[in-house]
Amino acid sequence: MGGKDSLFKPKTLLPMITLLFILGFYVYLQYIGGTRFTAISAAQAQPEVGKEAVVFDQLDLPWGKVFLVNTARGERTVVVRKKGPFWHSNGVITFEKSNAADPIRTIGWLNYEYTGVHPPESITLISIITTDPRVAAIEVGDGTDRVKKHIEPNKPLLVWWPKTFIGSLLNPVALSSDGKPLYEYRYTYPNITDSSLKWYPVAQ
Questions:
Q1: Contact 125, 77 (CB under 8 A)
Q2: DSSP of the chain, one letter per residue?
Q3: Cross-strand bridge partners of residue 38
Q4: In the sheet that 173-175 helps form, which strands lie side by side, from edge to edge?
Q5: Which of the residue ranges 3-12, 159-168, 173-182 has the most confident prediction, judged by mean pLDDT?
Q6: Residue 50: which residues within 8 A CB-CB, separation 6 or more?
Q7: Structure confidence by residue, pLDDT tens digits, 57-77
Q8: How far apart, in Å, are the Cα atoms of 141 and each of 15, 27, 172?
Q9: Gap between the Cα atoms of 175 and 135, Å rounded
Q10: Exposed/middle/buried for 148, CB within 10 Å: 0-12, 13-18, 19+?
Q11: Which percentage of the chain shows pLDDT scores above 70?
Q12: Is residue 164 a contact partner of residue 113, using CB atoms and an 8 Å limit?
């Protein structure tokens, strides 16, 4: 009896309460910072995403996940990393609905590197959708990393690399079945703004 009662002596109880308080406070800070027990809930914790977001594509990587989701305000690309038993979102790329009627759109994008570990965690991706039946392929990338992928109407195409690029070097181009350039993804010049970055028809 004496040994059992000693667990609840003030000298023992106070450190236990202090430890539980510190642990609870840490978990609370992590929670309000977006840390969650599952990857998708960490993604949904981002204010730009929300619980109503619907995943239309995802990548499962050794160090984390990338979710491409639809929201009421447009598409979002969300990267989440594993932190021990938890998950935390490191960033969100947003696409608004202003270009929703365009015949070809970029609906996912990420050029991400986390250098807090060795080797760094890196990924670049682009997701594209088209309603133009003339578009048969997407060519994108730089140098030996440039690829050509078949695309079907109304089906998102995801292209990715386990590395980062200078974004302007990717030079995405939409091609016809005979290899003819139909659209190019770029800014308008000289008006270089985020809103002007979209797909434009190639002058024939």
A1: yes
A2: -HHHHGGGSHHHHHHHHHHHHHHHHHHHHHHHTT-BSSHHHHHHTSTTT-TT-EEEEEEE-SSEEEEEEEETTEEEEEEEEEETTEEEEEEEEE--GGGTTSSEEEEEEEEEEE-SSSSPEEEEEEEEEE--TT--EEEE-SGGG-EEEE--TTS-EEEEESS---GGGS--EEE-TTS-EEEEEE--SS---GGG-EEEEPP-
A3: none
A4: 147-150, 137-140, 173-175, 181-186, 198-201
A5: 173-182
A6: 44, 71
A7: 999 999 999 999 999 999 999
A8: 57, 41, 7
A9: 6
A10: middle
A11: 80
A12: yes
Residue that is written with structure tokens 């993604």 in the block = 43
**What's the mean per-residue pLDDT of the chain?**
85
Kindly list the distances between the CA atom of residue 189 and the CA atoms of 155, 171, 193, 196, in Å, as whole numbers in the listed order.
30, 15, 9, 9
Tokens of 143: 């140098």
Written as six digits, the tokens of 112 are 């991400």
pTM for the complete prediction? 0.81
